[in-house]
Amino acid sequence: MAEDLRQALRAFIAGVMPGRENALVFGEGPKHAKLMLIGEAPGEQETLQGRPFVGKAGQNLDHFLALAGLSREEIYISNAVKLRPTKTGKTGRLSNRPPTKDEIALFRPWLMREIEEVAPGMIATLGNVPLRAVTGRSLSIGEVHGQVLDAGETGLPLFALYHPASLIYNRSLTDVYEQDVRALAQRLKTL
User: Fold this and answer.
1) pLDDT at site 55
2) CA 71 to CA 5: how far, in whole Å?
3) Rg of the chain, C-alpha, whole Å
4) What is the phi/psi pair of residue 139, to 5°?
5) In the chain, where are the structural domains located?
6) What is the DSSP-derived secondary structure letter of residue 23?
7) Which of 33, 34, 138, 126 is nearest to 81 (CA)?
8) Torsion sign (Cα): 51, 52, 57, 61
């Protein structure tokens, strides 16, 4: 994300969520990348390191990207929501939670500006939240994973993938995820 867009988003968040502007996790990668990956929201490790997909889900993602012959250096990676959504557990410890509709709506204009700025050849969404945020439709990843869709107002092709964190909780998705990532890699060869 270009520095001017980062500064504008920081100022916006300072106005609506004072004190949270320094916890933003911005997208990273080359402008005009062939592929832009969009996840849900940063987790604990992402917030601590200020980088997208560096926790356990990021390790899963890196593994599958390598299987498909893709590397992080050639991909732009971001999230639909740029702040970690949390909840407090019974022990008082913060844990991740899915972003609310309001949080997704708050960040959607910024995500759309980021997509326009990056101008990728294709978008791959990781899970339901970014799939719905980008397309503006109530799609389900279970119904459309592994398919190329129209990314709505961006005019770009969109490839729907399960979120790599889903493999942590549901190991039975491993083969499906690998097939989908390989299909994505094949599709990228045509761009």
Assistant:
1) 85
2) 25
3) 16
4) -90, 160
5) 3-188
6) G
7) 126
8) negative
Question: pTM for this one?
Answer: 0.93
Phi, psi of 92 (to 5 degrees): 90, 0
First-to-final CA distance of the chain: 23
Q: Which of 123, 100, 96 lies closest to 111, judged by CA?
A: 123
Per DSSP, helices labelled H in the chain are 3-16, 44-49, 56-67, 101-118, 128-135, 141-144, 166-169, 174-188
Q: Hey, what amino acid is at 189?
A: K
35-94: pLDDT as tens digits:
999 999 999 999 999 999 898 878 878 887 887 788 889 999 999 999 999 999 899 998
Nearest to 60 by CA among 80, 39, 74: 39
Q: Tally the residues of the chain.
A: 191
Residue 116: per-residue pLDDT: 96
86-91: long-range contacts, CB 8 A cutoff, minimum separation 24:
none
CATH number of 3-188: 3.40.470.10
**Residue 110 — pLDDT band, cuts 50, 70, 90?**
very high
CB 28 within 8 A of CB 140: no
- Output the six-digit token pair for 176: 């499906």
Alpha-carbon distance of 144 to 149, in angstroms, equals 8
C-beta neighbour count of 135 within 10 angstroms:
20
